[in-house]
Amino acid sequence: MSDIQSAQRRGRGRRPAAEVRAAVLKAAADLLFDDGVAAVTFDKVAARAGSSKMTLYKWWPSPGVLAFEAYFDSTEHRLSFPDTKDIEADLLTQMTAFIRLLNDQGSGKLIAELVGAAQSDPALARALSDFYTGPRRQLAIDRLRRAQEAGQLRTGLDLAAVVDQLWGACYHRMLLFREPLETSMAKTLITNLLHGIAAP
Amino acid sequence: MSDIQSAQRRGRGRRPAAEVRAAVLKAAADLLFDDGVAAVTFDKVAARAGSSKMTLYKWWPSPGVLAFEAYFDSTEHRLSFPDTKDIEADLLTQMTAFIRLLNDQGSGKLIAELVGAAQSDPALARALSDFYTGPRRQLAIDRLRRAQEAGQLRTGLDLAAVVDQLWGACYHRMLLFREPLETSMAKTLITNLLHGIAAP
Predict the structure, then answer these.
(1) pLDDT at residue A154 is higher than 90
(2) Is residue A114 part of a domain?
């Protein structure tokens, strides 16, 4: 019996799928943050997570997609969206956390490379929208809609466009200019958009 | 004497550098729009432009950089920034042309792939900022500053952030969501940002 098989069968038998999945995502995230995207191979992840490589092939279409899911799994809690009933304050809290995440430990560089690679890799592009951009945009839209219902935002807004003008502005600065994002940019973007830039 | 040498020496002798440069950029743009980025090789461009490959090596660090410059050289006139003294109307004119350009003949796909590749190619990233994002942002900032001086925009604005919230919003939609851009998005983005999204 191989090491991997013994790991699978250790204890009271086969581990539940959810447990294996969590171990795989953790192993992939560790490799990713320690050594970058290229270090996330099915071989290395399987060995580190004590899972079979077959499982990885079954669950993830490519190591890039696994790396992507691991990245967002490990950072999701840092990007949660508060609801204190004050949309301006809540946007500031969330966007400041978002910019800090991009600035930390090369996260910005990682996400820039993943978004970059997705432009010519359809599987990665799908993973990007399934695991990250789609769900995160929906969370933001949900919070913005509650603010609208509470009378804090104008009615009739295209809320996806609002997302483009807040978080999208940060991605633009990072992807097209490779300039560092200051956390103060959060307040600038929110103030501009909520109160307008036209002279009063 | 090779075909290329005869082409160079045809007529009254060696062609002026500006003329060769224009011919090279046109040849590269033709290849790029007909067959995509991968078709732009120094061999093919030199043959089509009747220039020496040595000249191309001397002037451009890589075929990708040449492709990039050719792209923007051929599209620049479509992105000129009007000044009718009405910033809202001028933004609408320019951004509508910008979105049309992205939608036309695969231009959006091309620029998405170039921006994507730039995330892991420092020479391409430099070309991107030297030939495109840098100069185009400066043109927008110049126009926005004149609007500020004319009393149409608030004072104290971070004008680079305004660029992030208008054109950057379009890039965000395209690069992170791969969703088609409607020309109506121009008016949405401009109205949101100029007049604010907070309830009155």
Answers:
(1) yes
(2) yes
What does pTM read for this prediction?
0.79
Do residue A188 and residue B125 have CB atoms under 8 angstroms apart? no
In CATH, what number is assigned to the domain containing residue B159?
1.10.357.10
Task: For residue A198, give the 3-state DSSP assignment.
Answer: strand
Same domain, A139 and A188: yes
Which is more confident, B191 or B3?
A: B191
Helix (H) or strand (E) holding B147: helix B134-149
The domain of A189 spans 78-195
Is the ipTM beyond the 0.90 threshold? no
Looking at A72, A87, A111, the residue that finishes a domain is: A72
Alpha-carbon distance A37 to B120, whole Å?
Answer: 12
In Å, how far is A133's CA from the nearest CA of chain B? 7
CB within 8 Å: B194 and A197: yes
**Same domain membership, residue B181 and residue B121:** yes
Distances (CA, A) of B133 to A176, A182, B136: 7, 20, 5
- Chain A residues whose beta carbon lies within 8 Å of the beta carbon of residue B196: 154, 193-196
Domain total in chain B: 2
Residue A180 lies in a domain: yes
Q: What is the pLDDT of residues A116-129, one digit of tens each?
A: 989 888 888 998 88
Residues of B in contact with A199 (CB under 8 A): 151-155
pLDDT at A71: 84
B95-147 confidence digits (pLDDT tens): 999 999 888 767 888 889 889 989 888 888 998 888 788 989 999 999 999 99
- Assign A173 a pLDDT band (cuts: 50, 70, 90): very high
CA distance A122 to chain B (A): 10
Q: How many CA atoms lie within 13 A of B111 on its CB side?
A: 25
The answer to whether residue B200 sits within a structural domain is no
State which amino acid sits at residue A76.
E
Residue B50 lies in a domain: yes
CA B151 – CA B101 distance, rounded (Å): 31
Asked if residue B133 and residue B64 are part of one domain, the reply reads no
Q: Which of the pair, A15 or B176, is modelled with greater confidence?
A: B176
